Every structure is written in C-alpha cells, then in structure tokens.
Amino acid sequence: MTLISAARGFLAFLLSVPVLQGNDDWRVTYSSSNVCALRGAMVDINCTYEYPDNVQYRPNTVKTLWFTKGDKYQPVDLEHDTDYTGRVESSCGEVSCTGSRCHGTCTLRIKDLRQSDSAVYKFRFITNLPGGKYTGDPGVTLSVTDLQVKVSFPHPTSPTWTDLECHSMCGLAGDPPYIWFRNGQNVGQGVNYRAYIQSEGSYSCAVEGYERLRSPLVYPPKTPSVTVSPSGEIEEGSSVTLNCSSDAVPAAEYTWFKNNQPLHWGPSQPHTFPSVRPEDRGTYRCHAENKYGQLSSNLLFMDVQYAPKTPSVTVSPSGQIEEGSSVTLSCSSDANPAAEYTWFKVNRDGSSRCMNQGQQLIFRRILSSDSGRYRCDTQNKLGDRWFFISINVNYGPKHTSVYSSPSGEIEEGSSVTLSCRSVANPAAEYTWFKNNQPLHWGPSQPHTFPSVRPEDRGTYHCHAENKYGQLSSKTIIMDVQYAPKTTSVTVSPSGEIEEGSSVTLSCSSDANPAANYTWFREHEDSVKASGQNYTITNITSELGGKYYCQAHNAIGLHNSTFLLIKVCIQCLKMTDVALTTSSSWTTTVAVRGIVVLLATVLLLVFLCMR
Hints:
Elements: E1 12-14, E2 19-22, E3 27-30, E4 34-38, E5 43-52, E6 62-67, E7 88-92, E8 96-98, E9 101-110, E10 119-127, E11 133-135, E12 140-145, E13 147-152, E14 161-168, E15 178-182, E16 185-189, E17 192-196, E18 203-207, E19 225-229, E20 234-235, E21 240-245, E22 253-258, E23 261-263, E24 271-273, E25 282-290, E26 293-296, E27 300-302, E28 304-305, E29 312-316, E30 321-322, E31 327-332, E32 340-346, E33 352-357, E34 360-363, E35 372-380, E36 383-391, E37 393-405, E38 410-411, E39 416-425, E40 429-434, E41 437-439, E42 447-449, E43 458-466, E44 469-472, E45 476-478, E46 480-492, E47 497-498, E48 503-512, E49 516-521, E50 529-530, E51 533-536, E52 545-552, E53 557-559, E54 563-565, E55 567-568, H1 586-609
Parallel strand pairs: 4-12, 20-28, 30-37, 38-46, 47-55
Antiparallel strand pairs: 1-4, 2-3, 3-5, 5-9, 6-10, 7-9, 8-9, 10-11, 10-12, 13-14, 14-17, 15-16, 15-18, 19-21, 21-24, 22-23, 22-25, 25-26, 25-27, 29-31, 31-34, 32-33, 32-35, 35-36, 37-39, 39-42, 40-41, 40-43, 43-44, 43-45, 46-48, 48-51, 49-50, 49-52, 52-53, 52-54
C-alpha cells in the first residue's frame, strides 16, 4: 500500500506490518492486514502472489480478482459489484518466473470511499496449472472513518472554554498534522484546539494537506423554530403537535416553556397533545442547547378554541333586592372565541322573552314585576351554553284591601269571614281595626265570626306591614241585620184619658234594617194603624182597652207588651192609667182598690161635715 499525492485525493494509513498468507507453493502477501482511510478519500490495497512454475504449462495464464462478498469458491468480483460501480480499479503487473517460482503484484484502488466500503477485502488468482486456484485469507480489513471533533471542558465548574480534539474511529498512523477551521477559516494546528464557547462560530478539523476531507462542523444551536400542526385554528379535543428544531452539532437538547414556565416533557421530540384542552392555551417557546451554546426560539401562541363553558351569573349588589334600587345581572363564560351573550326572561308558560343583547342586564330602577326567572345564553361558533337565575324583588305592601265573605247582607247568627289581602314581598303582617280601634285578633288570617252578633256591626279596615313599607286598606261596613227585639210601647199623655181628648201611642224596637210597625187591639185581627205612632183623636170610652204594636222587618217580627187605655167621662185628677201585660191583672185590681178606698174616705168626711 502506498501514499499517493494529495492532488489525487488519496489518504490511507497502514496499521500493521505486511502479512504473508499461503503454503510453501501458493501464497498471497498483503502489504497490511488493516487499513484505515478517510471517507471521501482514495485508497490502494496492494498484494503480491506466488505459485510454482511448471514448464509444461508455459506460457502461464493468470486471472485475478478482488472480492468482499461470496466465498473463495463463488466470489463476487468487485469490478462487477454494483455498490462499487465506477469507483474501483484493479491493476496487476507482469508475472515473472525465476527458477521454480512465479511472482506477480496487484493493486486494488477504491475511490470516493464510503462508510459502507468498510469490509474485509480478499485477493484471488486462477492459473492454468492443475489445481491452480488460490485465495489469500484472511484478507485485508478496510475501515472507513470520518474525522470527528470531540469536546471536553477543562474546568467543568466554569464551562467558558472547551478543548476540541480531532478524532477518528480508527487510528491514523504516523501522527499526521491536523489543522483547525472556524467558520471556514484556518485558526490553528494540532490534534487539540481550545475554543471560547461563548463566541458564535462553527468548528471543524482536517489532516493538513487534505482540507477537503474536513470533519463535520460542530457549532452551537441556531435560532430554534417552533411549529404547530395542524396550523390555523385549533379546536378543543383535537390532536396537536408542537415541534422544535434547531441546526446544531452536536444535536441540541430541547426544553419547552409555557408562559415562561418550564415544562417537564422530557427529551422526546416532537410533543403531541392527543386531545388538546383549553388549559393548554398559551405562549410556548423552546430552548435548544448543546455543548457550545444555547438559544431560545421566538414565542408561539397556541390558541385553543372551544365552545362556551357553563356560564356563571352574579347579581350586584348581592343580598336582598329592594324595589326601586339599581340591579345589575352579569353573565360570564369561559369561551374562545369570546362568547356572545343574550338575556331572556322566562314566562310562566315556559316561553321566553328577549331582554338584552350583551353581557349585562341592568335594571336602573327595578320593579316588583321584574321578579322571576332569567336565562343567560352564551354562544360562539363552536357551541352554546346557558344558565338560569331567579330574581326576587322585595317591596312594601301594595293594593291592601278587605273582603267579606259572604258579601252583601249579613244576618245575625251567620258565619262571616273578613280577609285582608295585600301584594307584598316578603308577605305582610296584618293588624285589624274596628271603628278605628285596633283589634287583638292575632296574626292569623283571615278572621271568622262563627256566629255574628249585632254588636259586631261597624266599620273595619286592615293595616299591612313588612320591613319595606306599610299600607292600610279602605274601610268596609259590616252591617249585621237582625229581627226586631225589645219592642216597647209608650202613651202620651199618660194616665187616664178623658173622653173626647186625643191620645198618641208610640212604638220602638231595636232592629236592622229598621222595623216597620203595625198596631193591634186585643182580640181583634184587623190592623188599627201602621207606623211608629198611632194617634186617636176625640177618644170615646168604647175605644178604651188593651193595645200593642208589632215591629217587623225582612228578618222577622216582634210584638210589644199590651198597653191599657182607660177612658173616663169625668176623670179624677189623678192618673188611672196603668200598664199591664196580658199575663198579669194584679196591678189593675190594686188600682181599683185604691180608688174605692179614696171614695169611701171622701164620703165619711162629707157626712161628718153635715
């Protein structure tokens, strides 16, 4: 194996001494058992071969080939191997025979070496001699390698400077000189080079004279780029992949940040959200780092869109709502894109009425009629949600009124119920008044008279009150009607009635409605007169006797006691009129006895005077 000029792009290194392979008569000698060559270079593998001379078979014919595939019985000639097409040449010199032995040389040249060319190469020759085939085992091992830059930090606690070493996987013999490049410019020589890692730049090394076969570059990360897939609008529940990429040698390691907080996603790239959620929404960036530096990407905003979540409703001010105050209902829902809001009032039949478009429903001066159930609807292009809330407006009593049952005419003894009604929230407490005087009926409602009495007659009203106000009803008159009672008769003038004079009888009775009066004489069915007063003019003795009156109304009637009228022709100047009842004549007899006694006394006085 020989070292060819740099202009021919050749670079290979012998790693061992020449190897002799064969027996006493047949042999192949390789220049080296191991060859290390750089990828992209050209290498020659040389050998010599010998075999016994036989005059009988002169001139000798020899066929030669190199192979890596197959075996010595069915080898694949490299010149016919498609993996080497256009890249291999085999050249052999003239065979010379001296004495009893023949000698030949062959060279295999492989150009534009590839990593896949690393293999064991064997030489085989075939002669026209009996048994004249021979393969040189075990062959030559070719190792194709790249130059690589190895990195170490002389001071790990302060990794500002780094040591670079130009390294190959197989040893290059002869300690070839190395040169270093930064951003393509020659910056030094030697196997090792110390670099300041804070400065931007890419580094590579090469064997001096073979600059085109440089090692791969090493450099800190370029500005990372972040991509999201799918791009455009992202809906909740979809699969989303975030990918970070940065050109760096050696390859960068990545750390993800969300809203400037590190994420523990591990080193795998890319990161996939199998079912993205609203809370995944935010700004993302990635941080790329290798031994030579670090750099962060620009921010990427991942906007996860989703239908409105169940809304929440707040009432301001909170607590009790008083009629006339200002009240604001506010609806909010987590949604992306932002939700549109509509307020409805739900009617009792389940239908609804639109109240307002917007996030707030404002009552500048809330009314009691605004009490009820409200619904906030939220909607965006991905869906809708709604929420119900009930509003209870407190207010003082209104429309306080009194009702009587039964209504209309009320008869004594019947059951009567008085009810007070008022619209109020909270419910009002009631106080009753009769003739403007408070009644101690207690808080129960309504109030019932099980058997109404005449003394219950009067004007009634109720007073409704809660903590928000008070209001009295109008008065009603409870008119208890009853039949006449305590009917009585008086006479004017009183005492004995002188014949020819005038007398007036008067009747009175407690009744509601007011009684009508009819006059009767004892033992007579005919009506003597009608009206409260009965006047007899130019009275005669025949008109004397017992009289009574009858009081009657729509409810019933009642008779008075008897009144005795005594008519005298020449009446003593004393009263001889007595009231009697139909059941007692004792009084009448007593009066007559007194009259007889007085007459006797007068008669005796008269006789004595004579």
